[in-house]
Write a structure and sequence with these properties.
By secondary structure, the chain is of the alpha/beta class. α1 packs parallel to α2. The radius of gyration is 15 Å and the shape is globular.
Length: about 180
């Protein structure tokens, strides 16, 4: 059984950014525990929890059932949101693994540590740039992941960026970057 990322400061920063939006259908990519989808569903809106990890998807489903909002949530297992019809989605939220790997990183850290084998942020940006025009995405970025690199990659893919939320912690600063294509 793989560990599921518990809601933390970055989760709640993204939730605040999502809560300030008007939309009908949202996808939470890398939904982990499902906290964002559940809060969206409590507002009577449609949410899709998508996670590459089966245990995380199961945790999202359990949270939705426990909170009584499962009728408003779909839970799917898949890589990013490539398996979904994004033309039916208004908002995509993604809190990717963004911490830099170090000598102590293990496979158990894959929910939080960037993998040299899988560029989740780059893959997400490419998915957004290839998606339907008008879709809005919210991406969590840490000061431990160069923000200017994310902005440069976005611009190269024709994606406009804007920082819509930030949170200063003692060891990093977190940003929520709005991506529009």
């Amino acid at each position: 059984m793989s560990p599921v990322y518990p809601p933390s400061e970055d989760s709640f920063l993204l939730l605040d950014a999502v809560s300030n939006r008007k939309f009908k259908v949202m996808v939470d990519v890398g939904s982990g525990s499902g906290v964002i989808c559940v809060e969206v569903a409590k507002r009577g809106l449609r949410a899709i929890c998508s996670d590459i990890d089966f245990e995380a998807a199961a945790a999202s489903r359990r949270r939705a059932l426990r909170e009584g909002v499962y009728p408003f949530i779909d839970v799917v297992v898949g890589d990013l949101a490539r398996h979904l019809r994004l033309d039916r989605v208004d908002l995509i939220a993604f809190n990717p693994p963004y911490l830099p790997p170090d000598e102590y990183s293990t496979d158990l850290d894959r929910a939080t540590v960037r993998s040299p084998k899988n560029d989740a942020i780059g893959n997400f940006l490419r998915m957004v740039s290839g998606g339907p025009r008008g879709i809005v995405a919210l991406l969590v970025v840490s000061s431990l992941t160069p923000l200017d690199e994310v902005i440069r990659m976005s611009a190269n893919l024709g994606i406009k960026t804007r920082i819509v939320a930030r949170l200063k912690l003692f060891y990093e600063e977190l940003y929520v970057v709005e991506l529009t294509h």
